[in-house]
């Protein structure tokens, strides 16, 4: 997790405007679109491929706006320019008790309505 934070921070600093564009969320992954909240984590995936990520951990807060670069199974890659980081999805979006849930990097997230 720390490695991802450092990698994404570095890619934001090294990004060249207009070098890469976000990949829109494909139709078969539309359930990923929306705002997801979990313990000390917020993830907002937009249909056009913009991804906003916030995570609070002891001693540090991380807040990033990055581009979706594509999906690999249930996991998805984000990044800027040539640098990518993978969000590991152990439980893809699914309905549970009337709410949408998914688990990323060990954190259970619930989609806001």
UniProtKB/TrEMBL annotation:
Superkingdom, taxonomy of origin: Bacteria
Signal peptide: 1-20
Key words, A-Z: Signal
Protein name: DUF2147 domain-containing protein
Origin species: Massilia aerilata
